[in-house]
């Protein structure tokens, strides 16, 4: 086997950007799973990765020659409060690999032991959150939404202390980078303008090469991140996803979904839905996500002020002009997505009101978000029974049919388009919890494998697996997901 040829551009940045660390070995690593297609994309041999040496590498027990492990420094606003020093407290970047498409990607071990940024933490991860991140991030990818990926997961043979003792695990995660809004804040809050500039140049070269050609590259960088985040959040809303901890340190400048903690897909549509047990004020509720993303981007803009113009006032004017792009970019992506969900192939006045009419009826009638759109796509008459008052659906559906008739689209094409926009399967919380219980209580990973297989094809009807479409029964409902870090 040719060992992975890591090439580590981040480790070549100035010393103050990171700490060199080595993963702390674990007693008895055991493979949970290797993501073979992703491994192959990265030029890794999946069989080697799942074999003895690969598992040692995935557990952090062995560091390959070309790897230069580091923990990166960052800061961040957590629930609105600024913390000047966070950093990778339990994640270690092994290095970067250039994938088959020529895209440079980070390979990181989450739960690989303490680093200089661990503060009071143990540097470890429990198996539950590792399985949740694996399932949810891979679903996100299958849904076509930018995200970090799960390359592999192993158990460590150690226990970690949380509310109780839990089996420890390590997630090998792949991202186009792990650079966060909080990474910029780390330097900006120290008055380190050179650090901000070096980081900005790195991000431009890595993620937004077009910005380098622009008349004002840093303004173009800011605008690129704003657009990427606006489009990302629109995609989240369109599948009913709630990130749960949209702190600036969990906000990727590459526009990927990152740091899956107490996240969830909603069952019945509720714009105020919050799952995270640590979000007691609903700061990161479903419908607040666009506003919070914009708030995070204002923080990024503040960091870039000295690069945008020679004086603060002119810089602020530049920043504000760039930030004005957020709302229209979000609306454009969100509205286009709503049209797709409703099978509207052309744009007409009143389309958005029509979509909002359905959402309002769903919210008032506690209709399941995913199943409503899916059954609508399938022309399944039982969709009305998802509403506490089915007449509310009927009233809306008459308007929708009228609108479809005006469009005169081919019904089969319309249906196919809707089936490709409205997933049948999402990682429902109660299913994810059941998978975690089986792994923790019975060391049984078969339910994880089965759920993952279903979720890897979220838009396909999968006969025999329809039960995964069911919302939770009353006793299965999960009211809060815990950070469980
Ligand atoms: P998160 O909530 O996972 O995004 O983490 C927020 C911050 O806490 C980051 O700096 C993490 O690296 C750090 N952190 C979270 N859990 C641990 C842990 N078990 N050990 C050390 N640091 C941690
Ligand atoms: Mg984080």
TrEMBL record:
* Residues annotated to bind Mg(2+): 250, 259
Species of origin = uncultured Gemmatimonadota bacterium
Protein name per the record: Protein nucleotidyltransferase YdiU
Originating gene:
ydiU
**What role does it play?**
Nucleotidyltransferase involved in the post-translational modification of proteins. It can catalyze the addition of adenosine monophosphate (AMP) or uridine monophosphate (UMP) to a protein, resulting in modifications known as AMPylation and UMPylation.
Q: Which residues bind ATP?
A: 87, 89-90, 110, 122-123, 173, 180, 259
Recorded GO molecular functions are: AMPylase activity; ATP binding; magnesium ion binding; manganese ion binding
Q: Active site annotated at which positions?
A: 249 (proton acceptor)
Which keywords does this Swiss-Prot/TrEMBL entry list? ATP-binding, Magnesium, Manganese, Metal-binding, Nucleotide-binding, Nucleotidyltransferase, Transferase
Question: Family assignment?
Answer: Belongs to the SELO family.
Cofactor(s) this protein requires: Mg(2+); Mn(2+)
Fetch the NCBIfam families from UniProt. Answer: PRK00029.1 (NF000658)
């Amino acid at each position: 086997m040719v060992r992975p040829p890591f090439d580590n551009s981040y480790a070549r940045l100035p010393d103050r950007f990171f700490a060199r660390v080595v993963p702390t070995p674990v007693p008895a690593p055991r493979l949970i799973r290797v993501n073979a297609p992703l491994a192959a994309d990265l030029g890794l041999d999946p069989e080697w990765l799942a074999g003895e040496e690969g598992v040692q590498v995935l557990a952090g027990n062995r560091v390959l020659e070309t790897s230069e492990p580091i923990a990166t420094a960052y800061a961040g606003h957590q629930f609105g409060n600024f913390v000047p020093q966070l950093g990778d407290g339990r994640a270690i970047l092994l290095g970067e690999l250039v994938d088959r498409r020529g895209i440079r990607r980070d390979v990181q071990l989450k739960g690989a032991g303490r680093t200089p940024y661990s503060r009071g933490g143990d540097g470890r991860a429990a198996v539950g959150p590792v399985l949740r991140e694996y399932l949810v991030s891979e679903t996100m990818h299958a849904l076509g939404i930018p995200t970090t990926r799960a390359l592999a997961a192993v158990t460590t043979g150690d226990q970690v202390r949380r509310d109780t003792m839990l089996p420890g695990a390590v997630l090998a995660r792949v991202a186009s980078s792990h650079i966060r809004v909080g990474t910029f804040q780390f330097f900006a809050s120290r008055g380190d303008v050179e650090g901000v500039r070096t980081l900005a140049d790195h991000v431009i070269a890595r993620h937004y090469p077009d910005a380098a050609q622009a008349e004002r590259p840093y303004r173009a960088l800011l605008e690129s991140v704003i657009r990427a985040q606006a489009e990302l959040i629109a995609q989240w809303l369109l599948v009913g996803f709630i990130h749960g901890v949209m702190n600036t340190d969990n906000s990727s400048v590459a526009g990927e979904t990152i740091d899956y903690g107490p996240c969830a897909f909603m069952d019945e549509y509720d714009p105020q839905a919050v799952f995270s047990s640590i979000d007691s004020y609903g700061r990161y509720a479903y419908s607040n996500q666009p506003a919070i993303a914009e708030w995070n981007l204002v923080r990024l803009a503040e960091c870039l002020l000295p690069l945008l113009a020679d004086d603060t006032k002119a810089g602020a004017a530049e920043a504000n002009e760039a930030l004005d792009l957020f709302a229209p970019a979000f609306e454009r992506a969100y509205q286009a997505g709503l049209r797709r969900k409703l099978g509207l192939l052309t744009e007409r006045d009143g389309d958005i009101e029509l979509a909002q009419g359905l959402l309002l009826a769903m919210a008032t009638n506690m209709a399941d978000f995913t199943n409503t759109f899916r059954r609508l796509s399938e022309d399944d008459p039982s969709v009305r029974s998802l509403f506490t008052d089915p007449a509310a659906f009927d009233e809306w559906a008459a308007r929708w049919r009228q609108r479809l008739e005006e469009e005169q689209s081919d019904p089969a094409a319309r249906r196919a388009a809707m089936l490709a926009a409205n997933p049948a399967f999402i990682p429902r919380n109660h299913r994810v919890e059941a998978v975690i219980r089986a792994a923790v209580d019975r060391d049984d990973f078969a339910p994880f494998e089965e759920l993952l297989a279903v979720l890897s094809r979220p838009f396909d009807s999968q006969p025999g697996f329809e039960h995964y479409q069911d919302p939770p029964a009353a006793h299965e409902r999960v009211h809060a997901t815990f950070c469980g870090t």
